[in-house]
Design brief:
single chain, about 200 residues, 7 strands
C-alpha cells in the first residue's frame, strides 16, 4: 500500500502510535509516518505521542514545547475541566476541553521547568456532576533534552538558576544563555518582518 492517508483514521492513529514505540524506523516506515502525521495535523488531530516521532517528522515547535492532558470519556457529553498552573494561579479556572477523536479530549499547555499543572475533570453521571479524575503534570526536562527553541532557551536559564550544583554567580554562564536567547529572538523577529 502506498497511500496510508486513505485508510480509516483509527488505523492511521494505530500505525503512528505503534511506530512511536519503536526504537528505530526504516526508510519506508519514516515515509509512512510522515505522510500520516501530515494528514492528521490537517484535521487538526494531535496526540502527545507525536512528540516521540520528531526525529522522523517535522512538527510545529508549539506542539513540541507543550505538555498534554489526554482524557478518554465514557460519555457522549463533554467533560468539564478545571485547572491551574502552580505557582502562578491561586485558584482553579474552568477551561475548554478540546474534543479530538472518539470521546478523547485533549488540552495542551506550555509549562516551564518546575511548573505544576493541576487539574480536575468532572462528568455528569446519573444526573450529578462527579469528579472523575484529578492529578497534575510537571514539566521537568534535562538541559541535554532541550531542542533549543526560544522557549527552551528561557527554560534552560530557569533550570540553571534553580540548579544547586550551578554557580548562579558565574556571570559568563548565565550571560551566555541570555545572549543566545536574544540572538534567537532577534532572528525570529527579523525573519517574520521580512515575511510581512
Amino acid at each position: 500500500m502506498d497511500d496510508y492517508t486513505s485508510i480509516p483514521m483509527i488505523y492511521q492513529l494505530a500505525i503512528t502510535k505503534y511506530y512511536s514505540e519503536l526504537a528505530v524506523l526504516d526508510e519506508k516506515q519514516q515515509k509512512v509516518v510522515s505522510d500520516i502525521i501530515d494528514n492528521l495535523m490537517a484535521y487538526p488531530i494531535v496526540f502527545p505521542y507525536f512528540k516521540k516521532l520528531t526525529k522522523y517528522v517535522s512538527l510545529p515547535q508549539d506542539i513540541v514545547d507543550k505538555e498534554f492532558l489526554v482524557y478518554k470519556s465514557s460519555l457522549e457529553k463533554s467533560p468539564r475541566l478545571k485547572s491551574r498552573v502552580y505557582p502562578y494561579d491561586a485558584s482553579f479556572t474552568e477551561e475548554r476541553f478540546d474534543y479530538h477523536y472518539m470521546n478523547i479530549y485533549i488540552k495542551e499547555r506550555l509549562l516551564f521547568s518546575g511548573d505544576r499543572w493541576e487539574y480536575m475533570i468532572y462528568e455528569e453521571i446519573e444526573g450529578q456532576e462527579k469528579l472523575t479524575q484529578s492529578a497534575s503534570i510537571v514539566h521537568e526536562e534535562a538541559i541535554e533534552a532541550l531542542s533549543f527553541s526560544r522557549f527552551d532557551r528561557i527554560n534552560e536559564i530557569d533550570i540553571l538558576l534553580n540548579d544547586d550544583e550551578v554557580d548562579i554567580y558565574d556571570e559568563n554562564l548565565i550571560k551566555d544563555r541570555l545572549v543566545k536567547y536574544l540572538i534567537d529572538d532577534e532572528i525570529a523577529r527579523e525573519t517574520f518582518n521580512l515575511m510581512m
